[in-house]
Amino acid sequence: MFISRRGFAVTITGAEGCEFRLSNLTVAVLGAGKIGSIMARSFSDCGVHVIATARRKERIERLRMQGFEATSDNVHAVKKASVVFISVKPYQYPALARQIGSHVAGKPVVSVMAGIPLRLLRKTLPGAEVYRAMPNLNAAVKRSVTGLVVPKNAQYREIIKSLLSCMGSVYELPEQLIDAWTAVAGSGPAIIAEFIDSMILAALAVGIPRDLAYDAVLESIIGTAEYLRTRPVHPAQLRDEVTTPGGTTIMALKVIEGKGMKSALIDAVERATARARKLAKEIEESIEEQYENTNSSSV
Ligand SMILES: NC(=O)C1=CN([C@@H]2O[C@H](COP(=O)(O)OP(=O)(O)OC[C@H]3O[C@@H](n4cnc5c(N)ncnc54)[C@H](OP(=O)(O)O)[C@@H]3O)[C@@H](O)[C@H]2O)C=CC1
Ligand SMILES: O=C(O)[C@@H]1CCC=N1
Fold first, then answer.
1. Is 189 helix (H, G, I), strand (E, B) or coil?
2. What are the structural domains of the chain?
3. 98 ligand 1 Cβ < 6 A
4. How many whole angstroms separate alpha carbon 119 and alpha carbon 67?
5. By its UniProt entry, which SUPFAM superfamilies does this protein fall under (predicted)?
């Protein structure tokens, strides 16, 4: 397991770090869509029994064909599970919370939803031990870098970390960093895929055949990441090692600098972080409304 020299993280667990025997555990994944079904597969590969939920029949059928117990009944899944993961879209959460809110007391519940803060999760899931996690799509190849916010006096911390380790590495974070983590690591694969796509188009533009272009770009990215991951070298140092005075690389770097690639990426990550914060406000308003309506109709 590699431990970052530059990282803020206080705890890191590798994919090999399943310290707990997870095989007797039943875990509910509520909202087993794109990321939820990848989580379900990862937990299942760690020996966990998974109950996955979705709304549409076709999705439930597909989950069953993938070997999971699957249902549209979230309350049934929550009652049967010792640990609950929530992976619906943020705007779908208020409806889900209404269904399961009175059935989660005493259980650990992990939300992977962007934006929704612990405060709001606690309010809607009374008595549950609530965590926030932000994995990424690379969990499909056991290479997620999952950010984890652990509540104070957590009883289930180790078991949650072991479960998340089934998807890759786990970094414990303070809650104020999770929106930024969402932008960098959660959205990261999409941003990096855009870069890869652009490099492949660039390779085609200079005449490299498509399959060779794909390999040249992907292998260069994996190799560069591995180089930086395993050596005490700053990215700017690596860049200087490659750049010959008057050579080819400096010509490319000049264009990149002129078009503002760094500033575009910094802006992009700042905007994504701001969007996660705004999501929290939007959901909060909708939940406040829901609670006010419930209270006033029960008076
Ligand atoms: N995609 C990603 O890379 C990542 C996403 N996330 C977070 O994960 C969450 C899910 O994202 P993603 O997987 O992309 O979205 P999807 O739309 O693919 O998945 C959401 C799933 O939730 C199901 N669902 C919605 N409402 C309910 C309900 N009341 N009961 C049961 N199931 C329900 C939907 O079912 P049906 O299909 O039947 O409508 C759907 O399958 C989001 O909150 C996102 O912020 C976090 C990290 C990475
Ligand atoms: O785009 C989103 O909102 C989610 C969160 C991180 C990745 N996908």
1. helix
2. 12-178 (3.40.50.720), 188-259 (1.10.3730.10)
3. no
4. 35
5. 6-phosphogluconate dehydrogenase C-terminal domain-like, NAD(P)-binding Rossmann-fold domains
